[in-house]
Amino acid sequence: MRVAIVGATGAVGHELMQVLESRLKFDELLLYASPRSAGSRLTFGGQELTVQVTPEGPIDADVILASAGGSVSKALAHRWIEGGGVVIDNSSAFRYDAQVPLVVPEVNGEAALSHRGIIANPNCTTAIAVVAVAPIHREYGVKRMIVSTYQATSGAGQKGMDELLEQTRVQLEGGQATHEVFAHPIPFNVIPHIDAFQDNGYTKEEMKVVWETHKIIGDSSIRVSCTAVRIPTLRTHSEAITLELERPATPAQIRELLARSAGVEVRDDPAAGLYPMPLTASGKYDVEVGRIRESLVFDGGIDLFVSGDQLLKGAALNAVQIAEYLQEKGALKERQRV
Length: 338
Ligand code: A2P
Prior knowledge:
Oligomer: single chain
CATH architecture of the largest domain: 2-Layer Sandwich
Keywords: Amino-acid biosynthesis, Diaminopimelate biosynthesis, Lysine biosynthesis, Methionine biosynthesis, NADP, Oxidoreductase, Threonine biosynthesis
CATH superfamily of the largest domain: Dihydrodipicolinate Reductase, domain 2
Strand order of the largest sheet: 3-4-2-1-5-6-7
Largest sheet: 7 strands, mixed
Radius of gyration: 20 Å
Subunit structure: Homodimer.
InterPro entries: Asp_semialdehyde_DH, Asp_semialdehyde_DH_beta, NAD(P)-bd_dom_sf, Semialdehyde_DH_NAD-bd, Semialdhyde_DH_dimer_dom
EC number: 1.2.1.11
Number of strands: 13
Bound molecules: adenosine-2'-5'-diphosphate
CATH topology of the largest domain: Dihydrodipicolinate Reductase, domain 2
Low-confidence stretches: none
Distance between the termini: 14 Å
Shape: globular
Organism: Deinococcus koreensis
Strand content: 15-25%
């Protein structure tokens, strides 16, 4: 099996290489990025591999993990799969296309099997939320879901992290922080603005949580509202989530349910200072869930807090898990050589 990464030099590309090395069984890796990086060398499994310019035609790989942005995927993904490979796309280019499955393997892995060459990897905030919310929905029925997010700068890629570090240094040295990546200076600030504002007053990032939760869980009757906020951390998104349920649940029942749910680590002992945080969730494959308590607003409802490494579960890990799922199910097509 041959795997390709498009966007290998980016923040998610870097994580894809780490996750591939630790999880997937395959024979060969191809690395692609923009012409800026062509010829640069990256190390994988002790070997140096050369980064090539992203092809504008078929890619000779069984699995193509794409993380070079929506416009690149939109323009080229259909060409890449002409050799019979499958694209697992990290951008939002195809997520709302009815022909394209949007997959979180712990929740709707089987949807990946109906792909027609492209599978979409969800928005990072949604992927992290549904790992915790989908098991609760299956058992107790979620009627309403209110989400407030605390999103790391790496959600905007390597350049987001660079801006946080560089501008923090500028500010600590007494200078005036500027901004290019974010709508305002990010050091010592929080910014309730991620992606473009829509006509309804929500941002696109917030609406992604609505649309994608519906598509992944497969139930568009759930009422979802999100406020998405950028905070000055490097990686891992956190989310405060309030759920109204069809059938009332106690915190103990939710704790017990999540403790046996795939992809979740229950970290919930406030008296001992144990709750989800970017500090502890960064680098972890599981999403931390804690602060599980009875809602004071919805009778029998639940409040919880999650932290998930959005470069991993929100991006690279989820994409590799989709590839693993296809491999396990024998669903990777016999590829023509191109
Ligand atoms: P490059 O490093 O050569 O610019 P991030 O999300 O961290 O900003 O990373 C984006 C990734 O997508 C990088 O690997 C970047 O390559 C790649 N990329 C950006 N634009 C293009 C493009 N037009 N064609 C192919 N790859 C691209």
